[in-house]
């Protein structure tokens, strides 16, 4: 059985994008004392803008997704979410590889992202995929660790 494809989300995917994002980030609410920003995103607007990529073919269950935005000098990984039911199946790894390939296809030399300082799991994962800490900064109510991955 081959790996699930990763494709640009379409309007019909918006409910699944919302459901996967909520399921992935909900466990952090109590720990960080705030609703994680991806849960409050305008998913329909992000899909309409072409920023959301999901796993699986049309009409299949979405196990994971990324929200990305291209800038002149980098691709910003705004959110990566894997449904808890899909943990341990390599979905996150495939999504991170997709982000790298997407940045390269756009001719961008690096990927940037941030995670909440209290999301310890992420701080263990990102360095394994070549990300390095760029800075730690408080943005409003969020204490964030910013990462970058140079692709050249």
Describe the fold and architecture:
- A seven-stranded mixed β-sheet has the order 1-2-3-4-5-7-6.
- It contains five helices and seven strands.
- The chain is of the alpha+beta class.
Present the secondary structure layout:
Elements: E1 6-8, H1 14-25, H2 28-32, H3 43-48, E2 52-55, E3 64-70, E4 75-82, H4 91-105, E5 110-116, H5 120-125, E6 132-139, E7 142-150
Order of SSEs: EHHHEEEHEHEE
Distance between the termini: 32 Å
Based on Cα principal axes, name the global outline: globular
Largest sheet: 7 strands, mixed
Overall mean pLDDT stands at 94
Low-confidence parts lasting 5 or more residues at pLDDT below 50?
Answer: none
Alpha-beta classification:
alpha+beta
User: Strand tally, please?
Assistant: 7
In percent, how helical is the residue content?
A: 25-40%
Radius of gyration, taken over Cα atoms and rounded to an integer in Å:
15 Å
Output the number of helix runs. 5
Assess the beta-strand content as a share of residues.
25-35%
**Strand arrangement in the largest pleated sheet:** 1-2-3-4-5-7-6
């Amino acid at each position: 059985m081959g790996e699930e494809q990763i494709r640009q989300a379409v309007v019909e995917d918006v409910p699944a994008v919302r459901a996967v994002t909520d399921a992935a980030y909900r466990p952090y609410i109590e720990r960080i004392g705030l609703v994680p920003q991806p849960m409050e995103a305008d998913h329909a607007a992000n899909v309409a803008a072409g920023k959301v990529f999901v796993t699986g073919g049309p009409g299949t269950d979405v196990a994971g997704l990324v929200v990305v935005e291209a800038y002149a000098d980098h691709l910003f990984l705004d959110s990566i979410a894997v449904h808890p039911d899909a943990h341990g199946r390599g979905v996150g790894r495939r999504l991170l590889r997709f982000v790298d390939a997407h940045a390269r296809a756009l001719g961008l030399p690096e990927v940037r992202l941030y995670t909440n300082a209290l999301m310890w799991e992420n701080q263990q994962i990102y360095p394994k995929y070549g990300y390095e800490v760029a800075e730690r900064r408080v943005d409003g109510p969020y204490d964030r660790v910013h990462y970058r991955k140079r692709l050249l």
